[in-house]
Amino acid sequence: MAGRSEELAGDCPFSTVEFLDQDSPREACEVRSLDLTAKPSLWRVAVRVAVREMRRFARYGFFARGVERLRVTLLNMSQQSIMQHDMATTPDRIEDLMEAVAAGHTYLTPDAYYELLEEQVLDISLEEINEHIKDMCSHSLWFEPNSKAPSPNAIVACAPTSIPDLTTDELMKALKEAGSEPIEPPKDVDVPQSLMSRPRIIMLMQDKNAYWVSSKVNAARTFMLGKLMNGVAVNMLRSPKKSGRACMRVTCPGGRSVEVKSLEPSQSGIPHGAVALGSATVQEGGAIGGWSREQIELYCIDNLVEVYAQVEEGSIHFDFIFPSERFPSVLQILRGLMTDFKWEGDAFARGRESLEQRCREVESSLEERSKAELLKLMTGGDLRFSTPRSEALQSLTLTDAKDAMIAHLATEGTELSIVGDFEMSDVADLIRTYIGSVPARKSSILNTLPRALTIEENGKDIEVEIPDTDARSVVYVAGKMPSGWGYNSDGTHAFLEKNSFGKRAPRDVLLTDTKARRNHPLFAYVGYGLLREVLTRRMFSELREEANLSYEANFKVIGFDNVNGGYYLATATAAPKNAKKALEVVKRTLAALRDGKSSITWANLENARRSVTGRFEGGMEGDGYIVQMMSGMQHQSNPLKAEQLFEDLLAVTDSVTVEDLKLLLGTLALEDNQMYSCIGISAGDHDPLADGSPPRSPPRGGSTVLRH
Hints:
By secondary structure, the protein is an alpha+beta fold. 41% of the residues lie in helices and 18% in strands.
């Protein structure tokens, strides 16, 4: 529906829109719903477009070529399920079985389902499909004048109080007006089989500048680190744990950390929010070369390719999840993104709206707003580590967003991390063809990394109050520390000597030689992970079991790729009346560990060791976790992250001692005048049960407007 709003001149009303049709065991019936999130000021436009498209399907159904594509897609998805069936966990299978029983379905194995699907999907005619589509969308015709169509069971709207014109009467008026608009049959879309012609592909295969300048492969030929002539780095791990599937993360170093620190006129560089807005524009866009956004979206659907763009403080990521046999399709999309992406105004508008929506969510969320205010205090208002401001986003142009992204998409520094069920030699040839032939381009960002996260050591306490219907509170305590890899904000390392990249050692040496253990590249990374587990358990014990003040407590180590320095964040939730007591307990617990009044025990360490080991072993069963671990292995800003991460992590985990954890604890700013704290309180001003009456639910039919 968002893709059919061309007449909106770039100001798309939707943040998200989704039509759902599912059997609901709870409701004991089939439930159909249209869920949309809209820009508050454009809610009428969103309603108009949504109702119009629903009516279009109800009147005209689908078109022949679209149905044929869906047939192929359904069969491909079913084949993928067959290949992955052996990897399904017992709880997943039990859940599927329980759902089938609850909904009155016949439970089928993936093999049986595919056989039935293959038989049925070819026999179903276009007329039968359209008859069902029209039935699914028939309730949208109720809004038409003099209609005898069935009415929707419920219409629910939730709006901020700043939109006073969204009332039940106004909502129904907008729906009726939308039902009176003329509609035309849906237009067919020509979906490409390939984004490149065969002669073009052959020409890329013969490109003399496309070759590997380095390639390091392990003895089992399951892991590879390589670099192409144009500067693109590639990390590959062959893993058959998810049969027929692959996952690829494209990492471009830089991220929000290369934006300006403040809005002062004297600041020069990438404007505040431009990197985030550029990433959001790519996510909302998709037009490549001569292909439109809708064509590329359908191309991804046909090839079962999922694509996500996200920006972090130290890098930009593009994640691709797909069947292994679709590598050519994925690499064609990536090449188009790097060389021929079309920057469109409507995608820019949707990207900006999604970020502004995120700003509003932070402002209204107790936890997010409290953390944002605390981080602002700690960093002296450094905007690189805060959610982009709405007023700054409004001042940015499409050119600002485009320039920020192009600066990141240089071949130099771009890294592909790939894991899945494939032959490495075949994939290496495809990467050389499609990505190795991308013209080399130097990065203007790479030599400025790593950037620094600077935190002043003059702790302060603040309180944040958020209006809400529920009275609750959250407590945060934070302070300066090295990054998760041990780098201080000034670039020095907490344990390694200057210009040292650490030194590996066998497991038996790590267990007995303190110097060798602390000189290992993974010592800080593993040690801080263990320390996090120990402090989380200690805080929970003190707050929940001893003081009975909190129902949740945790301790986190916060750091970012390509950024030196980090901070710790201790979190506790409590009733508002107990918030200050909880804060005192958190600070007292950390101070006791700092002063040695309460020591870390061997039992604490062993429990933490089991948690870290279990998390690593469980994560290695999933491609997404492995890709995340591989990302950044060839980035020059962190030479400690290399291939030994997989080989040595458990050995280093087993070798860490209590004294090591005490050493690591000493790198945290835990003095009273170094700790920052924030108490966030949402003060509910009305108790719905105060008068003794039970809470009321909206009626089963009709419309409801809720406000917050």
